[in-house]
Design goal:
Helix content is 49%, strand content 13%. The protein is an alpha/beta fold and 266 residues long. Bound molecules: nicotinamide-adenine-dinucleotide. Nicotinamide-adenine-dinucleotide (NAD) is lined by residues 17-23, 41-43, 69-71, 96-99, 119-120, 146, 148, 191, 193-194, 196-199.
Length: 266
């Protein structure tokens, strides 16, 4: 007989970059588990409002939206303060916002480097810095960083992304050690390729950078790296995230969880 529950009713979760792709799917998973949600991300305001109302109605939870730009530390701090003031708690922080740019290092635009480091790495420092005092007061918290297989291994033409994702692995581990006695955990999920708008964009960019067709990028580059030859699904990521967010995940701390079809086992 187990007393472990994955019901997250009454928990408050904030997911950066949750207007699209993986972040939106994880928000859906958390809402389905009963958590109240703060959505964040860029996009058309009418579409975001439709998503917000739809999630709240389908799952019977409180869903709010905060438009913090992950390039702006003061707006990021306000996202966490908003979660606390609107939902009363900050139980689960999912650092998911991310962008990509594919180019040879000698041609990599400086501005793209800066924004990838800011959005994919520094934004997680700012959310964690603001959330940890609240989580310590609660005596419980879950920090889940959506890193990547590229947090563990590299690919060419993605210098900024690979640097940021390797950086978030270090942040995940350092924070894990600091909060270990406070009922808080800090972990990283490292997905392989998931077919999201970000990856659709990468297919086109990689085709250009390598001078090959988009079909060849999918078959010979993207799924070549993934031994299962299958894209990772949203449900597969949700299963792991909900485990880490639940009481069952309390002893998982400072770890990197690969969900990549065997990519980094090679
Ligand atoms: P996506 O482009 O579909 O979604 C990215 C989200 O981040 C969107 O909601 C977007 O609005 C938000 N965002 C971007 N810039 C922002 C900013 N300045 N401020 C606030 N929000 C911002 O991408 P995705 O594929 O769902 O990727 C989500 C995360 O998963 C990223 O961190 C990515 O690196 C990681 N990841 C993706 C894959 C994959 O195959 N798709 C694999 C491994 C890791």
């Amino acid at each position: 007989m187990t007393s472990i529950q994955t019901d997250l009713s009454g928990h408050a979760a904030v997911i950066t970059g949750s207007t699209s792709g993986i972040g939106l799917a994880l928000a859906e998973g958390l809402a389905a588990a009963g958590a109240n949600i703060v959505l964040n991300g860029l996009g058309d305001s009418d579409e975001i409002e439709t998503t917000r109302v739809d999630l709240a109605q389908r799952h019977g939870v409180d869903v709010r939206y905060h438009g913090a730009n992950m390039l702006k530390p003061d707006e990021i701090a306000d996202l966490i303060a908003f979660t606390k003031s609107e939902l009363g708690r900050v139980d689960i922080l999912v650092n998911n916002a991310g962008i990509q740019h594919v180019a040879k290092v000698e041609e990599f635009p400086e501005g793209k480097w800066d924004s990838i480091i800011a959005i994919n790495l520094s934004s997680a420092f700012h959310t964690i810095k603001a959330a940890v005092p609240i989580m310590k007061d609660q005596g419980r918290g879950r920090i889940i960083n959506i890193a990547s297989a590229h947090g563990l291994v590299a690919s060419p033409f993605k210098s900024a992304y690979v640097a940021a994702k390797h950086g978030i692995m270090g942040l995940t581990k350092s924070v894990a050690l600091e909060v270990a006695e406070s009922g808080i955990t800090s972990n990283a999920i490292c997905p392989g390729y998931v077919k999201t708008p970000l990856v659709e964009g990468q297919i086109a960019d990689t085709a250009k950078a390598r001078g090959i067709s988009e079909e060849d990028v999918v078959n010979d580059v993207i799924l070549k790296a993934q031994p299962t030859k299958q894209f990772v699904t949203y449900d597969q990521l949700n299963g792991l995230m909900l485990y880490l967010a639940s009481d069952a995940g309390a002893s998982c701390n400072g770890a990197a969880y690969q969900v990549d079809g065997g990519w980094v086992a090679q």
